[in-house]
Amino acid sequence: MTLLLFCALLYAAGAQDPPVDDVTIVTPLHRTGVDLALEHLNSQITVPRLFRYNRTVDKQEQQSGGTESKYVYEHLLLKPTVCLKGTVYSLQNCSFINNKPSMDCVVCYKTEFNQIQQTPKPYVHCIQKPRVTQDIKTDRIAACKKMAYLIGSTCIMCARAPRGR
User: Which helix H or strand E contains 99, and what residues bound it?
Assistant: First the structure.
């Protein structure tokens, strides 16, 4: 009976997932892409809530020129939290809101010696997950390809699998 009451209270209160310890689940280089996406999204005036890293959908890296230079493509999902901007100092204290859509983000950037480079300018694009269309996916890939082509190297997103006959 007590367990049933406890479960009912959690349900009625709209229980949130526990915060993801995003500091321990990503490598330092992956953390760079996550930080770029979070900085971009949390700096938007029209977005009232803080967002946190939820999960990685896809991540690809390709060496460029020397062994210490690479292009990175990351497809991330960020979730809104209960915290409004300017109200907290630690995102770890902000639990996810499950009844709001995740933000679907793509980040492309170049690194040298595991440090992000400002040339070419990193590409960050975030949109609510339900609003992602095939055109948006195509535009994102094109933007990442363009970034790599400006430097004159190949990129992971440029290779295509041969079509079956």
Answer: none
What CATH number does the domain containing 77 carry?
A: 3.10.450.10
The maximal CA–CA distance of the chain, rounded, in angstroms, is 67
pLDDT over 90, % of the chain: 38
State whether residue 26 is helix, strand or coil: coil
Count how many domains the chain has. Answer: 1
Residue 1 lies in a domain: no
Write the pLDDT tens digit of every residue in 112-145.
Answer: 888 888 888 999 999 999 999 999 999 999 999 8
**Closest to 103 measured CA to CA, from 140, 143, 51, 56:** 51
28 lies in some domain:
yes
Give the pLDDT score at 118.
87
Residue 144 lies in a domain: yes
Q: Could you give the CA distance from residue 146 to residue 107 in angstroms, rounded to a whole number?
A: 13
CB atoms near residue 82 (< 10 Å): 15
Q: Which residue has the higher pLDDT, 122 or 89?
A: 122
